[in-house]
Amino acid sequence: MVVQRMSDGDVDRIFQALADATRRDIVERVMAQSLSVSALAGGYAMSFAAVQKHVAVLERAGLVTKQRRGREQLVYGNPDAVKRASALLDEYEAIWRGRIARMHDIVNDDTSGETS
């Protein structure tokens, strides 16, 4: 799998967008199926305009796309953007796991710290 490297700006937009619980919920819902902005708004105790603003933030981050169908705007999840964010988190996890493995090796090295 080839994952395209993201710019710092792209990373900032994605993680700032995902920092909000409502936006994470919108992403989860539209990944399962495309929904109109009206259908999305029906699931939250906030105004239609507020939901539109959340969708706009997600669209700027590339996590969703909107497509006009008749009088509605359908919102689609973008699995490629989620994969790129996931790949970045995997890189951070690999760094962390490498550090833990090195600490484990040091702790379990029977010869380190011993004097004969």
UniProtKB/TrEMBL annotation:
Transmembrane region(s): none
The HTH arsR-type domain, residue ranges: 3-97
SUPFAM superfamilies assigned to the protein according to its UniProt record, in alphabetical order: Winged helix' DNA-binding domain
Classification via SMART domains: HTH_ARSR
Name of the protein in question: Winged helix-turn-helix transcriptional regulator
Organism encoding this protein: Paramicrobacterium chengjingii
